[in-house]
Design brief:
alpha+beta; six-stranded antiparallel β-sheet; 40% strand; globular
């Protein structure tokens, strides 16, 4: 049903790779998110909560570099450990605090001097403007559905993103106490589609439809990925997954497993995807005077 559409949408949908680590740890954690390009000018759309991580990374890394400089200035005496603990306390550092985050935009443009991010005041939308490139590495760009009246209960749509972080081209450098991108290891991560039926719309306080609910969850890493029909026209963007308690709870029910009996409990939830509506995205782009394309239907 979505075979051709996935190929079409995949030409302008790209992953954002992220690596991070907690303070005091040498374990590097990979993660991913998604963006998609809306024109031939290097403009892309993703979620505001994804953009917050990108923007916040700079401050987190600057703080960690400053911490390392102050730590290096502590004299190597018998008071070192106490002074280090005082410094950690001043910075609020413990094993639960993220000390470093680094992001990498994959197969978007050949090079970049900077990027500008603008976010929607209330909805989970962010616009990324790449600057300083000479060549685009995406082939085409999104075409939004012109008439969104077809978004009704029962309509089948699909999302595309990068939920499984299989890339491995990173490491922790113990000499510099830093996380790094490296040339070896797996460079990419697989794209992954997931379909769903439109179940409900989300309405804001002004009685305007701002979101679309789907019968299946959006997966971690698909945030910022496009929502599209079987023709590849864009109906929205994956934003989050919410969880509805079904009430079919099972408490200490005795079951047989092989030759043994055991008691199990289960508290089931229904996981539903929430997507930002295409009309909200288009209105935001119009407000920012950003070029985009619509279907002719």
């Amino acid at each position: 049903m979505f075979v051709k559409a996935i190929e079409k949408v995949g030409e302008f949908t790209r992953p954002i790779h992220t690596i991070s680590r907690a303070y005091g740890s040498n374990v590097v954690l990979p993660g991913a998110a998604t963006l998609f390009f809306i024109n031939e000018l290097g403009h892309a759309i993703t979620c505001k909560h994804v953009a917050d991580v990108i923007v916040g990374a700079e401050k987190i890394n600057q703080t960690h570099n400053k911490f390392k400089s102050e730590r290096a200035a502590i004299p190597q005496t018998n008071k070192y450990n106490r002074k280090l603990k005082d410094l950690e306390k001043n910075y609020g550092y413990n094993q639960d605090v993220t000390a470093q985050i680094k992001n990498n935009f994959i197969n978007c443009i050949d090079k970049m001097s900077a990027f500008v991010i603008e976010v929607h005041p209330s909805e989970d939308i962010a616009l990324i403007k790449f600057e300083g490139f000479e060549k685009l590495l995406y082939k085409t760009y999104a075409t939004f559905v012109k008439d969104s009246s077809s978004i009704k209960q029962g309509k089948m749509l699909c999302r595309l993103g990068y939920p499984f972080s299989e890339f491995s081209n990173f490491k922790y450098n113990s000499n510099t106490d830093d996380i790094e991108w490296v040339g070896e290891g797996k460079q990419d991560t697989p794209r992954f589609p997931i379909e769903g039926m439109v179940t409900r719309n989300f309405i804001n306080n002004d009685k305007k439809i701002v979101g679309i609910e789907l019968s299946t969850p959006g997966l971690r890493g698909q945030s910022g990925g496009p929502l599209f029909d079987q023709e590849g026209f864009i109906y929205g963007m994956q934003s989050m997954t919410h969880h509805l308690h079904l009430g079919f709870d099972i408490k200490e029910k005795e079951i047989r497993e092989g030759n043994k009996t055991r008691k199990v409990s289960n508290y089931p939830f229904l996981h539903l995807g929430k997507c930002v509506h295409a009309d909200v995205i288009k209105d935001f782009l119009k407000e920012k005077n950003i070029k985009f394309y619509e279907s002719e239907q």
